[in-house]
Design goal:
globular, alpha/beta, binds cobalt (II) ion, five-stranded mixed beta sheet, binds phenylalanine, single chain, 14 helices, about 50% helix, 7 strands, two-stranded parallel ribbon
């Protein structure tokens, strides 16, 4: 087992928590206060519980302190990495219950602009859900599935599952929809848009449907997929994806705005936001 260990030590860097400036800690606190206020009624219970037990207030957290609590709860750890890492390293880390996080934080002059995930997105957005035992298992299974998918030429299909669940997933019923996705939960504007705007579609989660659906990286999502519960998500993804991938070979991609006759529609979006910003979805 020397190779996987070598991989881990290669990709991790030191967070250098003492190296953060007062201004950087202040950016975290500003973002934290804004999101915590919004999420009280908008994030799912697992997220809110995680936020509370991890105690992420008062500046950029020291990963070592987070890990004492997190490892105790679910065996997950956060490690610092130098920005985006190769797919194989990413999957390998998740399969070992290591969540890779950026160490840099966005600039105070552009609180809502991110060219790539920063420590606020990665830690505030993702780590609360890793305190939930079911979601903790889902993320590990995703990493294991990713390692298997590497050789199968189906990474785009698997990446869409990540996007529409881990980054932008909604959970619950029509009368009480909540966020669990990190991309939405770490963005003030998308937190509100995802749940309250009339523009996007909100559709019942279906594994193959999600895997076929292209997504927006340049704007709010045009469609959000809703799971009834975290248990249901884990159960829907237990099957060996080799057969799912095979069944997708003839199936075409679906546009990010599309609603199909087979969809379970919670909200039929107006798509006015997408029309106004005029962004055309990039091919994926
Ligand atoms: N069942 C999936 C597979 O065989 C593993 C997986 C679980 C992938 C959850 C993603 C999310 O590949
Ligand atoms: Co993310």
């Amino acid at each position: 087992m020397t190779a996987p260990l070598a991989l881990l030590t290669d990709v991790a860097i030191d967070q250098d928590w003492r190296g953060y400036t007062t201004a950087e800690h202040r950016v975290w606190s500003t973002l934290y206060d804004r999101q915590a206020a919004l999420l009280g009624t908008r994030a799912c219970q697992a997220f809110l519980n995680g936020l509370e037990v991890l105690d992420l207030r008062g500046g950029i957290p020291d990963f070592a302190a987070i890990n004492v609590r997190l490892e105790n709860l679910t065996g997950w750890r956060v490690i610092a990495v130098p920005g985006l890492i190769p797919d194989a390293d990413f999957f390998d880390l998740l399969a070992r219950r290591r969540f890779p996080s950026a160490r840099f934080i966005r600039d105070a002059s552009a609180l809502d602009y991110l060219s790539e995930p920063d420590v606020f997105h990665d830690v505030f957005g993702h780590v609360p859900m890793l305190t939930d035992p079911v979601f903790a298992d889902y993320m590990q299974a995703y990493g294991e599935g990713g390692l298997r998918a590497l050789g199968l030429n189906h990474l785009p299909h698997l990446a869409r599952l990540y996007w529409y669940t881990v980054e932008f997933g909604l959970v619950g019923a029509d009368s009480d929809l909540r966020l669990y996705g990190a991309g939405a939960a770490s963005s003030a504007a998308e937190t509100v848009f995802a749940l309250e705007s009339r523009s996007p579609n909100r559709l019942g989660f279906d594994l193959r449907r999600v895997m076929r659906t292209r997504y927006r990286i340049d704007d709010f999502q045009q469609t959000y997929f809703v799971i009834p519960s975290l248990d249901a998500l884990l159960e829907a993804t237990l099957a060996d994806f080799r057969d799912v991938y095979t069944s997708l070979e003839g199936a075409g991609d679906i546009g990010p705005e599309a609603v199909l006759p087979t969809d379970r529609v919670l909200t039929l979006g107006t798509q006015t936001h997408a029309a106004e910003t005029g962004g055309r979805p990039p091919p994926q």
